[in-house]
């Protein structure tokens, strides 16, 4: 069985996918379907963003953390210790330790979704909020912030582009795995006449599932679920069932 994952490998030698290859005798290839490109400070200035104007940073991804501190360094802006941070998830908050002394900062954390951090924003409604993001942002996020009637701005600090997948012209895999709507778009941008045929499609997250469905794909593996919170677990179950049916 051959599986293509539309992202680079993560976790190094501890990757659950490498363990899957070893234990289940399957071949897994990793290929990034999208590329993230820096937005230079000159373009950020054109957005009329002055980093010193803001007192709270809203982080919705680990990439937004990286690019905020990248652009701050590029603009020679020393982030003050008084800066407050509101992070969408615990993973993002912990990732902040790469750049700040965690215990000395004011950090508020949500559970999972953007709406989870709205109460923290309301408690600080007199502050000035900056939302670092890519050029792709869920429209409901600006809508939610506008309803709060707070001072906020969005800074586009990085852009998502489609990778050149021309070398995959003849896709020969049993399962294609996607983690974001952008990866689905990249597939059809590279192969407008893509035919799923007998290939199985695995998607992670509701937005990816929705994008795949709208693109006309038949989704066979949907993650996360209470039983399978990770893609690796779902793939292992699928492989086990496949082998059982062949006996």
Helix content: 25-40%
Q: Can you summarize the main beta sheet?
A: 6 strands, mixed
Residue-averaged pLDDT, rounded? Answer: 92
Radius of gyration: 20 Å
In the predicted model, the low-confidence regions spanning at least 5 consecutive residues are none
Q: What share of residues are in beta strands?
A: 15-25%
Listing every helix as H and every strand as E from the N terminus to the C terminus, the arrangement reads EHEEHEHEHEHEHEEHEHEH
Q: Give the count of helical stretches.
A: 9
**Could you please say which CATH topology of the largest domain applies here?**
Rossmann fold
| CATH architectural category of the largest domain | 3-Layer(aba) Sandwich
Largest beta sheet: what is the strand line-up?
3-8-7-4-5-6
Category by helix and strand content: alpha/beta
What coarse outline follows from CA principal-axis ratios? elongated
Number of domains: 2
CATH class of the largest domain: Alpha Beta
- The number of strands is 11
For the record, give the distance between the C-alpha atoms at the N and C termini, rounded to a whole number.
Answer: 16 Å
Describe the structure.
- The protein is of the alpha/beta class and 247 residues long.
- The protein has two domains: 2-33 and 165-246, 3-Layer(aba) Sandwich (Rossmann fold); 37-160, Rossmann fold (3-Layer(aba) Sandwich), CATH 3.40.50.
- Helices cover 34% and strands 23% of the residues.
- It contains nine helices and eleven strands.
- The protein has helices at residues 16-24, 41-46, 62-74, 90-95, 118-123, 140-147, 181-190, 206-214, 231-246, and strands at residues 2-5, 27-30, 34-38, 56-59, 84-87, 106-109, 128-134, 151-162, 175-178, 200-204, 219-223.
- A six-stranded mixed β-sheet has the order 3-8-7-4-5-6. The protein has a five-stranded parallel β-sheet with strand order 2-1-9-10-11, with helices on both faces.
- Strand 4, helix 3 (62-74) and strand 5 form a beta-alpha-beta unit.
- The chain is elongated, with a radius of gyration of 20 Å.
- The two termini are 16 Å apart.
- The mean pLDDT is 92.
């Amino acid at each position: 069985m051959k599986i293509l994952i539309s992202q680079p490998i993560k976790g190094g030698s501890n990757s659950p996918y490498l363990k899957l290859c070893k234990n289940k005798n399957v071949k897994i290839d990793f290929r990034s379907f999208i590329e993230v490109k820096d937005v230079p400070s000159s373009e950020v200035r054109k957005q009329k963003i002055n980093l010193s104007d803001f007192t709270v940073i809203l982080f919705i991804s680990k990439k937004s953390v990286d690019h905020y501190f990248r652009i701050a360094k590029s603009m020679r802006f020393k982030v003050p210790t008084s800066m407050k941070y509101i992070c969408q998830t615990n993973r993002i908050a912990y990732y902040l330790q790469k750049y700040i002394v965690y215990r000395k900062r004011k950090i508020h954390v949500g559970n999972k979704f953007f709406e989870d951090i709205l109460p923290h924003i309301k408690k600080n409604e007199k502050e000035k909020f900056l939302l670092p993001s890519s050029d792709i942002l869920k429209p409901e996020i600006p809508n939610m912030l506008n309803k709060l009637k707070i001072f906020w701005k969005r800074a586009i600090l990085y852009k998502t582009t489609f990778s050149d997948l021309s070398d995959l012209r003849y896709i020969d895999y049993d399962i294609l795995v996607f983690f974001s709507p952008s990866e689905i778009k990249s597939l059809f941008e590279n192969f407008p006449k893509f035919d799923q045929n007998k290939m199985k499609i695995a998607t992670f997250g509701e937005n990816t599932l929705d994008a795949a469905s709208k693109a006309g794909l038949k989704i066979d593996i949907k993650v996360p679920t209470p039983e399978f919170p990770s893609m690796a677990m779902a793939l292992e179950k699928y492989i086990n069932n496949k082998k059982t049916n062949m006996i």
